[in-house]
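Let us walk through a complete example step by step. Step one is to write down the protein sequence. Step two is to encode the small molecule, LNDFFVEH, as a SMILES string so that its atoms and bonds are unambiguous. Step three, shown after the inputs, is the structure prediction itself.
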Amino acid sequence: MNVLVVTAVAPERDAVTRACGEEPGRRALPGGYEAHRVRPADAADDGPGQALPVLDVLAAGVGPAAAAAGTATALTAAAVADEPYGLVVSAGIGGGFAAPGTGTGAVVVASAIVAADLGARTAEGFAPVTALGFGTDTHHPPAGLVRAAAGATGAVTGPVLTVSTVTGTAERAAELAALHPGAAAEAMEGFGVAEAAAAHGVPVLEIRTVSNPVGPRDRAAWRIPEALGALGGAFEALLPVLRAWKA
Ligand SMILES: O=C(O)c1cccc(C(=O)CC[C@H]2O[C@@H](n3cnc4c(=O)[nH]cnc43)[C@H](O)[C@@H]2O)c1
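Step three: the predicted structure of the complex.
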């Protein structure tokens, strides 16, 4: 099974490919995108139906729109080449909501991928896009895959919110936590990746490692190297799960 991994920025992409233990090949895609291809070795035996996955890792840009555009481009190119992906993974660093197990360096696997600021602000509060009669605001990764991925990586599971505007106050953090009980993390790309994957009928997974708490803005306190290290470790642990998983 070929897997498309979509990150926002190059350091996240490189954390993933480094975890796969080989120098990636470069594949040019339409629109100037470049996927980094790795074919991770795995010490486990090659049982029937357990082909080594090819991972194409794409840094598509920051935010849901960039993520959707990059993901859709890669999925379309693969479909045209008759080499479809069996899974799309949104991966990167993120903010952790105040909850057990979501401190800096923690791994979060999304049980739901939620567009948290897609909708309308009304006198009664936030109305999601679905309440306005449009589209969807949530995608659900396959539950079995979420369980297996969380088990292998030691992750917390919970909704991961996609926002176009990074939360920067305690009030907004509390508002989001109240609107999305159990929210574990926020980031800026998951829902865009999931929309593109859904349009192509491909399952999606989101995995985040926590670089900062969701709350008052303090960019200097983001622990990016620690979160990138955790992302690499999480992917190393995830590889056998991807290898064994069948849609
Ligand atoms: O400066 C660097 O070296 C560097 C390396 C890797 C990533 C970055 C980013 O700034 C990535 C932006 C990315 O981070 C996600 N993110 C992280 N924390 C939050 C948050 O609290 N709320 C929302 N998003 C967050 C997000 O997905 C962005 O794409 C820099």
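Step four is interpretation. The mean pLDDT is 95.
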